[in-house]
Amino acid sequence: STGEPVRIMSLNITSAHVSGKRVVMRVDFNVPIVKNGDQFAVAEKGNQRILATIPSIKELFSRGAKSVALLAHLGRPTGNTREERAQSMDKLGPGEFSLAPVAASLQASLGMEVRFLPHTVGEEAETACMEAESGSILLLENVRFHPEETAKVADTEAVRQFRAGLSKLGDVYVNDAFGCAHSCLLYTSPSPRDS
After folding, report:
1. What angle do CA 9, 15, 17 make, to 5 degrees?
2. What is the pLDDT of residue 88?
3. pTM of the full structure
4. What stretches of the chain adopt beta strand conformation (E)?
5. In sequence order, what are the residues at sequence separation of 6 or more whose Cβ sits closer than 8 angstroms to the Cβ of residue 179?
6. Running DSSP on this structure, what letter comes out for residue 178?
7. Which residues contact 119 (CB under 8 A, 6 or more apart)?
8. What are the residues whose beta carbons fall under 8 Å from the beta carbon of 134, sequence distance 6 or more?
């Protein structure tokens, strides 16, 4: 780093150049989840935030986006490490904080296939996003499973690695989660690619 301020151009969704690009879109999918037997699902009347993303997804594809990878959080898993947060999830039951039911709800509402990825960053997520076919929609697992997503993590190397992992998921970043934009979260504002 040269110490120079990073200049980030801010464009709205209709002026961003997305044609042929892999888009990473931050969305607000913090919706109510209910348990029906062994299965989790979005609450019957809890899909308003999911429905609110559909116009933006359609706009990106109408402007030629190759694929759209969606980043979101759901609930507040506790713990200071990824492992502790996973244990928190296990105590509440598998799927309590998973975005898998949200992927199913979005797919039903959108009428297009939505591929759920069980990871947010890492080789599997990067490969899926890099190799996504034209017209693909991917929903990555809950970013809250990563303590690095908040500004409260003291381990700057872990934060740098998490940021680098997120930057590998696409070519263009779109924030469609305006209800979360006020939060001091790593993925609510774009960052320069780490080398």
Report:
1. 80
2. 55
3. 0.81
4. 22-26, 33-36, 39-42, 67-71, 115-117, 136-140, 172-175
5. 28
6. T
7. 125, 140, 141
8. 66, 67
pLDDT tens-digit series, residues 47-61? 899 999 999 999 999
As a whole number of angstroms, the distance between CA 61 and CA 86 comes to 34
Decide: residue 62, CB within 10 A, 0-12 exposed, 13-18 middle, 19+ buried.
Answer: exposed
**Residue 62: per-residue pLDDT:** 96
Measured between alpha carbons, how far is 49 from 169 in angstroms, rounded to an integer?
23
Q: Which two tokens stand for residue 3?
A: 């110490």
Any idea how long the chain is? Answer: 195
Residue reference for tokens 């309590």 = 96
Residue 152 token pair: 């409260």
**CA count, 13 A, side-chain hemisphere, 167:** 14
Tokens 């044609």 locate to 19
* Residue 71: burial class (beta carbons within 10 Å; 0-12, 13-18, 19+): buried
